Amino acid sequence: MSAARRPLKSLGQNFLVDGNVIARIIQAADIQPDQPVLEIGPGRGALTGHLAGRAGRMILIEFDHALAAWHQDQLKDNQRVKVIDADVLKVDLAEIFSETPRKWNVVANLPYNISTEVLFRLYDVHDKLARMTLMLQKEVGDRLAAPPDCSAYGVTTVLLGLWFDISRVFVVHPGSFHPSPKVDSVVLNFIPLSEPRADVGDENVFRSVVKSAFSMRRKTLANCLKSAEFSKQVDCGELLETCRIDGRRRGETLSLEEFAALSRLLTQYLRKVAT
Q: Whole-model pTM?
């Protein structure tokens, strides 16, 4: 098998081929001596060799069985590298990161069709991470940096913003890939925070509040919350009134702090109901 075989459209494969972009991503990843590294979707290995030369321990997750086998053959003499032939959405990331007490760097050129799902899975293991350097579709990256009260602001903005400092490194144009995608990409750095930006009470409740608020973007916040599962246990109108949030607003207008206030109070209400 050759790594040069044709990219599979069914897997959303766009292989990075621009040496300058590769060098800038490696620099942005800032791999420290002996640091463990996870690469998601290594593809033809544009980044892999550079990362493997720096990492103390490295794990690759590749969904394409042929490419996974190729990487296993190429890296068979490097005992510090392990290749996992699997779908990253079905792998237990917490188990992978438990291999070492050191915090992990994650580097990935994420397929556009699963990038949001992967972000949510990485959000769940934020406490195991030292840094993430991810290439995403520019539209997705714009959402992560969006301020309240704009169309790009959404669930990923609020959830990832709770636990990460997110910064744009640079934009990558279609010509840096084969085949060339129809849109620009962007490389972002995610630096985990030692504490969340706001006290949200129960994080599962927080996630539920945020997802509910954006579930029907054209509807008011009051109507969105009324359709949430927790509305069967609490008075959402009272919840909003106590937090001094106008229920006629839409979810995209709320700041992280306002979502946190709703989540804290809802956490209290649900605990009272449970007792």
A: 0.91
At residue 51's C-alpha, the angle toward residues 46 and 55, to 5°, is: 165
Mark whether 124 and 229 lie in a shared domain.
no
Give tens-digit pLDDT for 98-139: 999 999 999 999 988 899 999 999 999 999 999 999 999 999
Longest CA–CA separation in the chain, Å: 63
Quick one: tokens of 195?
């504490």
**What pLDDT sits at residue 217?**
87
Q: What's the domain range around 95?
A: 9-192
C-alpha pair distances (Å), 62 with each of 68, 69, 72, 88, 247: 5, 9, 10, 8, 45
Give dist(CA 220, CA 231) in Å, integer.
15
Residues 95, 210, single domain; the answer is no
